[in-house]
């Protein structure tokens, strides 16, 4: 951690917190998901820096020490890609190896066709590119959230995240470290569902008094770091990414049309 430097970069109308290690001719850009932060990448940042790479990991808009615009519509991939392009320019980075996870992977998928000149290579985990650009299964005749609801029901987490304030109220009832532990240690191959009458707060109460074996990549210190940060900022910024899903199809069509000049 002592090797990681922190800075604030003004980009695309917001202040973005950026963590980085060393200068170097080649840069690796790490993009985190939900509910994570730049902190998720620190072992990889230090390891690759030891090999001579410059490593950079921002808190995406709405997360951690980066600004969180109030309007839900300000969290599309096009806003976040704009943040990243401006950040790279401000740091004097012309091109980077890009590594993404979860929402970070989705942003990386969009960065490639929008600014291919700034992506040297891409490594994405957990999220494939899907037709229409939603990165969630969808029926072309329906909006993405409607498709998810039809396939998985109202208890699917993406559906549960849609109503502003509702899930935030549920999260606020939960013990923060237990909530983060629930997010980062749940391993169920089925679609993630949380019944409304139980909620995430109810699920965290089921963990009370139980011993959860943490994976080697996650420590109690890590959980407490995330819990402290999200207790400070709340989750609304990260949740707004899910609330923008229905904007992705029309925006993706505009993107593809502009790239193809049609």
What name does the CATH topology carry? Rossmann fold
Report the sheet-strand fraction: 5-15%
List the secondary-structure elements in sequence, H or E. Answer: EEEHEHEHEHHHHHHHH
DSSP helical segment count: 11
Shape: globular
Helix content: 40-55%
End-to-end distance: 48 Å
Low-pLDDT parts are: none
Structural summary, described in words:
The protein is of the alpha/beta class. It contains eleven helices and six strands. It has a single domain, classed as Rossmann fold (3-Layer(aba) Sandwich). It is globular. The protein has a six-stranded mixed sheet with strand order 1-2-4-3-5-6, sandwiched between helices.
Key descriptive features of the protein:
262 residues, alpha/beta, Rossmann fold, six-stranded mixed β-sheet, 43% helix, globular, AB_hydrolase_fold, hydrolase, AB_hydrolase_1, AB hydrolase-1 domain-containing protein
Could you outline the blueprint of secondary structure elements for this entry?
Elements: E1 5-11, E2 14-21, E3 27-31, H1 42-50, E4 54-58, H2 77-90, E5 96-101, H3 103-114, E6 119-125, H4 144-152, H5 157-160, H6 166-172, H7 176-185, H8 199-207, H9 220-233, H10 236-243, H11 245-260
Parallel strand pairs: 3-4, 3-5, 5-6
Antiparallel strand pairs: 1-2, 2-4
Helix pairs in contact: 2-3, 7-9
Gist?
The chain is built from 11 helices and 6 strands.
